[in-house]
Amino acid sequence: MINQLRQEEDDRKLQKKSKTKKIITKRALKAAGHTDLSGNASKDAMLMQKLGETIYPMKEDFIMVHLQYSCSHCCTLMVSGRRWVCHQCRSFYICDKCYDAEQQLDDRERHPSNNRDTHMLHPVDILGVPKDTKDRDDILESEFFDTRQAFLSLCQGNHYQYDTLRRAKHSSMMVLYHLHNPTAPAFVTTCNVCSHDIETGQGWRCEICPDFDVCNSCFQKGVVTHPHKLTNHPSAADRDAQNAEARQMRVQQLRKMLDLLVHASTYRSGSCQYPNCRKVKGLFRHGMQCKTRASGGCVLCKKMWYMLQLHARACKDSDCNVPRCRDLKEHLRRLQQQSDSRRRAAVNEMMRQRAAEVAANE
pLDDT tens digits for 260-294? Predict the structure, then answer.
């Protein structure tokens, strides 16, 4: 009976101890390299520790990208100066400050520690951010990347997923393929007779019905009873050549359109002799006087808004003279903030569910 009472008392003490608020001491914070030793720093450190314990089981699903080297001793990012590299040890880099401190140590305490051999450290200059950061790549336009819903439909229709590293690699490569080949079919074509997937250049398509395709096997068997004429699908080589030519022509047209838009917005006088400049200014006047607007179905207004949106996505000038450029950039910024907020909320909800599952399994 006495032992039972002692056991119950010990259990109450343990429960009371677990309910007490845990605080990291200033000595522990200082040892961890924190400069702020206030109570908020203790809470932040505990929060980061709890977050690390929560996401540790999910680390296999993360894609880590190291943009800068970090010192193996002080863990600071090395963005300028030199870093000291050991060619014998993999992923060992230290900064100048840690290298000077290591040179003052005894030979047996230098890198690698607890080893009789001493490895030589070699200096490597750290290349900073280049002065010229202009993007010289061609402008690639695709309808699947104009809105979030279009990109989501592309991923859902082709089963592109990013929940594992292997699927993320495949999905990223396929998304890049659609970006560089805008005229290629976005979705897998299936045979209307046998319902099998049709490989590139191995099928027949109706010239009138947009959704009627048959494979070579069904076409050769003669089981197709379609009233319209069927034409053979282009081969992969022909399609690649068409895609390259169409992409180059589209890029050139987009560049001319954007340059002409800036030119017409800069030279407001009516003395410009370029006929295309006068046409763009005519579109400006039409947009100011039109009562139908793009929402009502006006073709000219839709064309004008498309050009303005393309310009606003690529424009970096804060004092741009193109009409509605500032408003469109502000609108795009708000859309990006809303998208980031929704993504953050989805990630937090996923982490909360994972943490609840881990806690339930324990």
Answer: 888 888 876 666 777 778 778 888 888 888 888 87
Axis-axis angle for helices 299-314, 275-289 (nearest 10): 110
The residue behind tokens 């950039």 is 329
Cis before 112 (ω within 30): yes
Q: How many CB atoms lie within 10 A of CB 46?
A: 14
CA dihedral 87, 88, 90, 92 (to 10 degrees): -70
Residues 131-166 have pLDDT tens digits of 666 767 777 777 787 777 888 888 888 888 888 889
Q: 271-298 burial, b for 16+ CB within 10 Å, e for fewer?
A: ebeeeebeebbebbeebeeeeeebeeeb
Is the pTM here over 0.85, yes or no?
no
**CATH code of domain 143-267:** 3.30.60.90
d(CA 228, CA 361): 61
Q: 193-240 pLDDT, tens per residue?
A: 787 777 666 777 787 776 778 888 888 877 777 778 777 766 555 555
Asked if 265 contacts 285 with a C-beta cutoff of 8 angstroms, the reply is: no
Give me the CATH topology for the region 69-125.
Wheat Germ Agglutinin (Isolectin 2); domain 1 (3.30.60)
Task: Please answer whether residues 204 and 220 qualify as being in contact, where contact means their C-beta atoms are separated by less than 8 angstroms.
Answer: no
> In sequence order, what are the residues at sequence separation of 6 or more whose Cβ sits closer than 8 angstroms to the Cβ of residue 236?
200, 201
Within this chain, domains 69-125 and 143-267 share the same CATH topology:
yes
Domain locations along the chain = 2-44, 69-125, 143-267
